[in-house]
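[agent] plan:
  1. take the single chain provided in the ticket
  2. run structure prediction with default settings
  3. attach C-alpha coordinates to the ticket
  4. add a short note for the reviewer (M.T.)
[agent] executing step 1
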Amino acid sequence: MSTIQKTAFIALFSFLLIFSEYAQAHIKWFVAFDVSDPPKSLQFWISQGYVVSLIFLSLWGVIIACLIDSFWCRHFGRFTYINRLFSQYDDIALNIARIGTGIFFVILWIVGGIILTPDLATDAHFIPYIQLFIAISVLFRSALWITGIGILFLYGYSVDQYGIFHLLDYLTLVGLGLFFILSAFKNSKLAEYRFPFLYGLLIFSFLWSAVEKLAYPQWFYPFLEKYPFLTMGLDNDLFIACAAFVEFTLFFLLLMGSNGVVVVALLSNIVITSGNIYFGKIDAIGHFPVNFILLIMLINGPLPIKHWFFDHRCKPYSAAIQIAMIFLINMVLLFSLYYGLHWILFGR
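[agent] step 2 finished; step 3 output follows
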Protein backbone atom coordinates (compact mmCIF):
# COMPACT_ATOMS: atom_id res chain seq x y z
CA MET A 1 0.00 0.00 0.00
CA SER A 2 1.47 3.33 -1.08
CA THR A 3 1.85 6.37 1.18
CA ILE A 4 -1.01 8.09 -0.67
CA GLN A 5 -3.28 5.06 -0.22
CA LYS A 6 -2.42 4.84 3.47
CA THR A 7 -3.11 8.57 3.94
CA ALA A 8 -6.44 8.24 2.10
CA PHE A 9 -7.41 5.22 4.19
CA ILE A 10 -6.57 6.99 7.47
CA ALA A 11 -8.43 10.12 6.34
CA LEU A 12 -11.51 8.08 5.35
CA PHE A 13 -11.46 6.12 8.61
CA SER A 14 -11.10 9.34 10.66
CA PHE A 15 -13.91 10.94 8.66
CA LEU A 16 -16.27 8.01 9.32
CA LEU A 17 -15.18 7.81 12.97
CA ILE A 18 -16.05 11.47 13.59
CA PHE A 19 -19.41 11.06 11.84
CA SER A 20 -20.12 7.91 13.86
CA GLU A 21 -19.03 9.56 17.09
CA TYR A 22 -21.38 12.48 16.55
CA ALA A 23 -24.16 10.20 15.29
CA GLN A 24 -24.20 8.32 18.57
CA ALA A 25 -24.02 11.37 20.86
CA HIS A 26 -27.50 11.65 22.34
CA ILE A 27 -28.53 15.27 21.94
CA LYS A 28 -31.35 15.16 24.52
CA TRP A 29 -28.75 14.98 27.29
CA PHE A 30 -27.08 18.26 26.32
CA VAL A 31 -29.61 20.82 25.04
CA ALA A 32 -33.10 22.15 25.77
CA PHE A 33 -35.77 20.64 23.49
CA ASP A 34 -39.49 20.09 23.12
CA VAL A 35 -40.74 16.99 21.30
CA SER A 36 -44.12 18.64 20.74
CA ASP A 37 -42.54 21.20 18.38
CA PRO A 38 -43.31 20.57 14.68
CA PRO A 39 -40.56 18.43 13.11
CA LYS A 40 -38.64 19.61 10.08
CA SER A 41 -40.64 18.90 6.92
CA LEU A 42 -39.48 15.92 4.87
CA GLN A 43 -40.01 18.14 1.84
CA PHE A 44 -37.17 20.33 3.11
CA TRP A 45 -34.78 17.38 3.19
CA ILE A 46 -35.92 16.02 -0.17
CA SER A 47 -35.27 19.46 -1.67
CA GLN A 48 -31.66 19.20 -0.53
CA GLY A 49 -29.91 17.40 -3.37
CA TYR A 50 -27.38 15.75 -1.09
CA VAL A 51 -30.07 13.73 0.75
CA VAL A 52 -30.85 11.69 -2.37
CA SER A 53 -27.12 11.08 -2.76
CA LEU A 54 -26.88 10.00 0.89
CA ILE A 55 -29.71 7.51 0.39
CA PHE A 56 -27.91 5.95 -2.58
CA LEU A 57 -24.58 5.91 -0.73
CA SER A 58 -26.22 4.22 2.26
CA LEU A 59 -27.88 1.71 -0.05
CA TRP A 60 -24.61 0.86 -1.75
CA GLY A 61 -22.92 0.67 1.65
CA VAL A 62 -25.48 -1.94 2.75
CA ILE A 63 -25.05 -3.94 -0.47
CA ILE A 64 -21.23 -3.93 -0.30
CA ALA A 65 -21.23 -4.79 3.42
CA CYS A 66 -23.60 -7.71 2.79
CA LEU A 67 -21.49 -9.02 -0.11
CA ILE A 68 -18.33 -8.88 2.03
CA ASP A 69 -20.20 -10.52 4.91
CA SER A 70 -21.51 -13.29 2.64
CA PHE A 71 -18.06 -13.85 1.10
CA TRP A 72 -16.53 -14.07 4.58
CA CYS A 73 -19.13 -16.57 5.79
CA ARG A 74 -19.00 -18.66 2.61
CA HIS A 75 -15.21 -19.00 2.48
CA PHE A 76 -14.15 -18.75 6.13
CA GLY A 77 -17.29 -19.70 8.05
CA ARG A 78 -18.76 -18.02 11.09
CA PHE A 79 -16.37 -16.00 13.22
CA THR A 80 -16.71 -17.69 16.60
CA TYR A 81 -13.32 -17.02 18.20
CA ILE A 82 -14.63 -14.51 20.76
CA ASN A 83 -17.59 -16.72 21.59
CA ARG A 84 -15.32 -19.75 22.10
CA LEU A 85 -13.01 -17.66 24.25
CA PHE A 86 -15.80 -17.19 26.79
CA SER A 87 -17.59 -20.53 26.28
CA GLN A 88 -16.11 -21.92 29.50
CA TYR A 89 -18.19 -19.44 31.49
CA ASP A 90 -21.80 -20.27 32.23
CA ASP A 91 -24.18 -17.89 30.45
CA ILE A 92 -21.63 -15.10 30.00
CA ALA A 93 -24.21 -12.82 28.36
CA LEU A 94 -26.49 -12.91 31.39
CA ASN A 95 -23.59 -12.30 33.76
CA ILE A 96 -22.43 -9.27 31.74
CA ALA A 97 -25.98 -7.90 31.78
CA ARG A 98 -26.25 -8.45 35.54
CA ILE A 99 -22.92 -6.78 36.34
CA GLY A 100 -23.56 -3.90 33.95
CA THR A 101 -27.09 -3.32 35.23
CA GLY A 102 -25.95 -3.41 38.84
CA ILE A 103 -23.23 -0.82 38.19
CA PHE A 104 -25.60 1.36 36.14
CA PHE A 105 -28.31 1.55 38.80
CA VAL A 106 -25.82 2.14 41.60
CA ILE A 107 -24.52 5.11 39.57
CA LEU A 108 -28.08 6.41 39.08
CA TRP A 109 -28.71 6.02 42.82
CA ILE A 110 -25.52 7.90 43.71
CA VAL A 111 -26.05 10.69 41.16
CA GLY A 112 -29.71 11.15 42.10
CA GLY A 113 -32.32 13.33 40.45
CA ILE A 114 -32.73 11.23 37.27
CA ILE A 115 -34.92 8.24 36.49
CA LEU A 116 -33.16 6.27 33.76
CA THR A 117 -31.19 8.68 31.57
CA PRO A 118 -29.69 12.16 32.10
CA ASP A 119 -32.62 14.05 30.54
CA LEU A 120 -35.29 12.27 32.63
CA ALA A 121 -35.02 14.48 35.71
CA THR A 122 -37.15 13.81 38.78
CA ASP A 123 -37.60 15.02 42.33
CA ALA A 124 -39.64 11.96 43.35
CA HIS A 125 -38.14 10.63 46.60
CA PHE A 126 -39.00 6.98 45.91
CA ILE A 127 -37.00 6.70 42.65
CA PRO A 128 -33.54 6.27 44.30
CA TYR A 129 -34.91 3.47 46.48
CA ILE A 130 -36.20 1.60 43.42
CA GLN A 131 -32.85 2.10 41.67
CA LEU A 132 -31.00 0.70 44.67
CA PHE A 133 -33.48 -2.19 44.92
CA ILE A 134 -32.84 -3.07 41.25
CA ALA A 135 -29.07 -2.97 41.84
CA ILE A 136 -29.47 -5.39 44.76
CA SER A 137 -32.00 -7.73 43.11
CA VAL A 138 -29.74 -8.30 40.10
CA LEU A 139 -27.25 -10.03 42.44
CA PHE A 140 -29.63 -12.96 42.89
CA ARG A 141 -30.45 -15.16 39.91
CA SER A 142 -33.81 -16.14 41.36
CA ALA A 143 -34.77 -12.46 41.61
CA LEU A 144 -33.97 -11.47 38.02
CA TRP A 145 -37.66 -11.23 37.15
CA ILE A 146 -37.93 -8.58 39.89
CA THR A 147 -35.00 -6.72 38.30
CA GLY A 148 -36.80 -6.75 34.97
CA ILE A 149 -40.09 -5.57 36.43
CA GLY A 150 -38.26 -2.78 38.29
CA ILE A 151 -36.68 -1.52 35.05
CA LEU A 152 -40.03 -1.66 33.24
CA PHE A 153 -41.68 0.19 36.13
CA LEU A 154 -39.14 3.03 35.88
CA TYR A 155 -39.66 3.15 32.12
CA GLY A 156 -43.45 3.28 32.60
CA TYR A 157 -43.07 6.04 35.20
CA SER A 158 -40.87 7.97 32.76
CA VAL A 159 -43.55 7.62 30.07
CA ASP A 160 -46.13 8.95 32.53
CA GLN A 161 -43.93 11.96 33.30
CA TYR A 162 -42.52 12.74 29.85
CA GLY A 163 -44.80 11.05 27.31
CA ILE A 164 -44.31 8.04 25.08
CA PHE A 165 -42.85 10.02 22.17
CA HIS A 166 -39.98 11.23 24.34
CA LEU A 167 -39.26 7.69 25.53
CA LEU A 168 -39.28 5.81 22.24
CA ASP A 169 -35.53 6.21 21.74
CA TYR A 170 -34.97 4.62 25.16
CA LEU A 171 -36.56 1.28 24.26
CA THR A 172 -33.11 -0.22 24.87
CA LEU A 173 -34.04 -0.25 28.57
CA VAL A 174 -37.33 -2.03 27.85
CA GLY A 175 -35.29 -4.68 26.02
CA LEU A 176 -33.03 -5.00 29.05
CA GLY A 177 -36.01 -5.37 31.40
CA LEU A 178 -37.59 -8.05 29.18
CA PHE A 179 -34.22 -9.80 28.92
CA PHE A 180 -34.12 -10.26 32.70
CA ILE A 181 -37.76 -11.34 32.97
CA LEU A 182 -37.36 -13.95 30.20
CA SER A 183 -34.02 -15.10 31.65
CA ALA A 184 -35.94 -16.16 34.76
CA PHE A 185 -37.65 -18.81 32.58
CA LYS A 186 -34.35 -20.58 31.91
CA ASN A 187 -35.81 -23.96 30.99
CA SER A 188 -38.71 -22.55 29.01
CA LYS A 189 -39.05 -21.61 25.33
CA LEU A 190 -39.75 -18.09 26.52
CA ALA A 191 -36.03 -17.71 27.29
CA GLU A 192 -35.30 -18.00 23.55
CA TYR A 193 -36.89 -14.60 22.96
CA ARG A 194 -34.67 -12.69 25.38
CA PHE A 195 -31.93 -11.95 22.83
CA PRO A 196 -34.30 -10.83 20.04
CA PHE A 197 -35.84 -8.34 22.49
CA LEU A 198 -32.45 -7.18 23.76
CA TYR A 199 -30.91 -6.77 20.30
CA GLY A 200 -34.03 -5.59 18.50
CA LEU A 201 -35.02 -2.81 20.89
CA LEU A 202 -31.47 -1.46 21.15
CA ILE A 203 -31.27 -1.30 17.35
CA PHE A 204 -34.73 0.30 17.11
CA SER A 205 -33.63 2.98 19.61
CA PHE A 206 -30.71 4.01 17.41
CA LEU A 207 -32.72 3.88 14.17
CA TRP A 208 -35.33 6.11 15.84
CA SER A 209 -32.56 8.44 17.02
CA ALA A 210 -31.25 8.65 13.43
CA VAL A 211 -34.67 9.76 12.17
CA GLU A 212 -34.84 12.27 15.04
CA LYS A 213 -31.69 13.97 13.78
CA LEU A 214 -33.47 14.85 10.54
CA ALA A 215 -36.74 15.71 12.29
CA TYR A 216 -35.11 18.19 14.70
CA PRO A 217 -31.78 19.43 13.27
CA GLN A 218 -32.23 22.67 15.24
CA TRP A 219 -31.63 20.76 18.48
CA PHE A 220 -28.11 20.06 17.27
CA TYR A 221 -27.04 23.58 16.27
CA PRO A 222 -25.97 24.68 19.81
CA PHE A 223 -24.14 21.36 20.22
CA LEU A 224 -22.22 21.88 16.99
CA GLU A 225 -21.37 25.45 18.00
CA LYS A 226 -19.83 24.06 21.17
CA TYR A 227 -17.90 21.35 19.28
CA PRO A 228 -17.20 23.01 15.89
CA PHE A 229 -14.42 20.55 15.01
CA LEU A 230 -17.08 17.85 14.49
CA THR A 231 -18.44 19.41 11.30
CA MET A 232 -15.02 19.43 9.58
CA GLY A 233 -16.06 22.63 7.83
CA LEU A 234 -19.31 21.22 6.43
CA ASP A 235 -22.64 23.04 6.53
CA ASN A 236 -24.51 22.11 9.73
CA ASP A 237 -27.54 20.61 7.96
CA LEU A 238 -25.34 18.57 5.62
CA PHE A 239 -23.29 17.27 8.54
CA ILE A 240 -26.43 16.35 10.54
CA ALA A 241 -27.89 14.52 7.53
CA CYS A 242 -24.62 12.60 7.02
CA ALA A 243 -24.54 11.63 10.71
CA ALA A 244 -28.17 10.47 10.57
CA PHE A 245 -27.54 8.21 7.58
CA VAL A 246 -24.32 6.83 9.09
CA GLU A 247 -26.20 5.91 12.26
CA PHE A 248 -29.16 4.41 10.41
CA THR A 249 -26.93 2.32 8.13
CA LEU A 250 -24.60 1.18 10.90
CA PHE A 251 -27.36 -0.10 13.14
CA PHE A 252 -29.31 -1.66 10.27
CA LEU A 253 -26.18 -3.70 9.53
CA LEU A 254 -26.03 -4.61 13.21
CA LEU A 255 -29.50 -6.11 12.76
CA MET A 256 -28.98 -7.89 9.44
CA GLY A 257 -25.30 -8.84 9.53
CA SER A 258 -23.67 -12.20 10.20
CA ASN A 259 -19.97 -11.92 10.93
CA GLY A 260 -20.40 -8.21 10.32
CA VAL A 261 -22.31 -7.95 13.59
CA VAL A 262 -19.06 -8.63 15.46
CA VAL A 263 -17.28 -5.85 13.54
CA VAL A 264 -20.11 -3.31 13.90
CA ALA A 265 -20.64 -4.08 17.61
CA LEU A 266 -16.92 -3.61 18.27
CA LEU A 267 -16.72 -0.42 16.19
CA SER A 268 -19.84 1.05 17.82
CA ASN A 269 -18.52 0.34 21.29
CA ILE A 270 -15.17 1.96 20.50
CA VAL A 271 -16.90 5.01 19.01
CA ILE A 272 -19.31 5.43 21.94
CA THR A 273 -16.53 5.03 24.49
CA SER A 274 -14.25 7.48 22.70
CA GLY A 275 -17.15 9.94 22.59
CA ASN A 276 -17.04 10.07 26.38
CA ILE A 277 -13.72 11.93 26.08
CA TYR A 278 -15.45 14.84 24.36
CA PHE A 279 -18.92 14.69 25.88
CA GLY A 280 -18.08 13.81 29.49
CA LYS A 281 -19.75 11.95 32.33
CA ILE A 282 -23.30 12.60 31.15
CA ASP A 283 -22.57 10.76 27.90
CA ALA A 284 -20.80 7.96 29.76
CA ILE A 285 -23.73 7.39 32.16
CA GLY A 286 -26.40 7.56 29.48
CA HIS A 287 -24.63 5.17 27.12
CA PHE A 288 -23.47 2.67 29.73
CA PRO A 289 -26.32 0.14 29.10
CA VAL A 290 -25.62 0.39 25.37
CA ASN A 291 -21.94 -0.37 26.02
CA PHE A 292 -22.54 -3.63 27.84
CA ILE A 293 -25.33 -4.76 25.49
CA LEU A 294 -22.99 -4.22 22.52
CA LEU A 295 -20.39 -6.26 24.42
CA ILE A 296 -22.96 -9.07 24.68
CA MET A 297 -23.56 -8.84 20.92
CA LEU A 298 -19.82 -8.93 20.29
CA ILE A 299 -19.42 -12.14 22.33
CA ASN A 300 -22.68 -13.90 21.42
CA GLY A 301 -22.62 -12.98 17.75
CA PRO A 302 -25.62 -12.37 15.52
CA LEU A 303 -29.19 -13.52 15.76
CA PRO A 304 -30.23 -15.91 12.96
CA ILE A 305 -32.39 -13.11 11.56
CA LYS A 306 -31.28 -13.64 7.97
CA HIS A 307 -32.68 -17.17 8.12
CA TRP A 308 -36.04 -15.74 9.21
CA PHE A 309 -36.21 -13.85 5.88
CA PHE A 310 -34.06 -15.83 3.44
CA ASP A 311 -33.05 -19.33 2.54
CA HIS A 312 -29.48 -19.68 3.87
CA ARG A 313 -28.52 -21.18 0.50
CA CYS A 314 -29.46 -17.91 -1.21
CA LYS A 315 -26.71 -16.57 -3.49
CA PRO A 316 -24.76 -13.59 -2.08
CA TYR A 317 -25.85 -11.16 -4.81
CA SER A 318 -29.49 -12.13 -4.41
CA ALA A 319 -29.29 -11.82 -0.60
CA ALA A 320 -27.59 -8.41 -0.87
CA ILE A 321 -30.32 -7.06 -3.16
CA GLN A 322 -33.04 -8.40 -0.87
CA ILE A 323 -31.39 -6.84 2.20
CA ALA A 324 -31.05 -3.55 0.32
CA MET A 325 -34.80 -3.63 -0.37
CA ILE A 326 -35.46 -4.34 3.31
CA PHE A 327 -33.20 -1.37 4.15
CA LEU A 328 -35.31 0.96 1.99
CA ILE A 329 -38.59 -0.43 3.33
CA ASN A 330 -37.27 -0.10 6.87
CA MET A 331 -36.30 3.52 6.23
CA VAL A 332 -39.74 4.37 4.81
CA LEU A 333 -41.50 2.65 7.72
CA LEU A 334 -39.38 4.38 10.39
CA PHE A 335 -39.87 7.84 8.89
CA SER A 336 -43.60 7.19 8.43
CA LEU A 337 -43.88 5.97 12.02
CA TYR A 338 -41.96 8.93 13.44
CA TYR A 339 -43.86 11.63 11.55
CA GLY A 340 -47.19 9.81 11.71
CA LEU A 341 -47.01 9.22 15.46
CA HIS A 342 -45.96 12.83 16.06
CA TRP A 343 -48.99 14.03 14.07
CA ILE A 344 -51.32 11.69 16.02
CA LEU A 345 -49.95 12.78 19.42
CA PHE A 346 -49.42 16.49 18.78
CA GLY A 347 -51.53 17.22 15.71
CA ARG A 348 -48.93 19.40 13.96
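[agent] step 4 note for reviewer: Residues 41-346 form one domain.
[agent] ticket updated
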